[in-house]
Amino acid sequence: MRTIVITGGTDGMGAALARHFLTTGDRVVVIGRSRAKFDGLLSALGDPSAADRAEFVAADLSLLADSRGVVAHLSARHEQIDALVLAASFIRSRRHATVEGHEASWALFFLSKYILVTGLAEQLRAAGRPVVVNTSVPGARADAIDFDDPELTQGFTFGKSNAQQRRANELLGILATRENPDLSYVTWGPARLVRSGLAGDVGAGMKFAAAILAPLLGQQPADAVRPLIDLIDDPAPGRAAYRGPKPVPLVESPRDEQDVIRLADLARADESGT
User: Fold this and answer.
1) Residue 48 — pLDDT band, cuts 50, 70, 90?
2) What angle do CA 121, 114, 185 make, to 5 degrees?
3) Pairwise CA distance, residues 48 & 267, whole Å
4) How close are the terminal C-alpha atoms of the chain, in Å?
5) For residue 141, what is the DSSP state?
6) What residue ranges define each of the domains in the chain, with the CATH number in brackets?
């Protein structure tokens, strides 16, 4: 029986993946903020055996303490993790500082992922064919990260924030696969809009677009994640990037090695509070 860990597994695409893998007989650990949504997901399945294979871990992954707590919990309970799906999302169009003092989007969309990927490396290494699926749309510019001000204390825009999170997660793949050559690390984004609720603190324009365009043009979460299921079921070692089922080129730069070191240094400093 495989162990599948899914952050953001109570809504949208994360919930669709949780439902699928519980239906196919896997053990599924859902990381999220709402126990009620998790219980509703299990109830809707109508399969008593699913509850025996499902686990919920409550966490706000914009808080580094919660992310570290998830790593400690999973490390104590699971010797092996076959798949780690990083799908937690909360979109912010404005800069917001957490109670820990970090910019919330940087903390949720990169720092938490760094903590989980590096902190669970031993459990992933124990799996025969481990895979990390990072739902961070690939293709950001190689120079997207402001290494002098990664939390964008000056000049924050949604576009800058989004681009540097995406680039950071691609660089995280270099670090992760270097440490574990058997690991499949996939950055992935849906091919088109998905009909799921827009969780976040966004402006009227983005809310309007989500409310109008997603129902008209979007695909159901269960349809959107079908390519992800294939990538989890048949992982290939190394890094890859996809939009929907279509592979896309990895963004590469002569500065990649230097940037990976700088990024890891930043992440470790944030973890230690220095």
Assistant:
1) confident
2) 60
3) 41
4) 41
5) -
6) 3-272 (3.40.50.720)
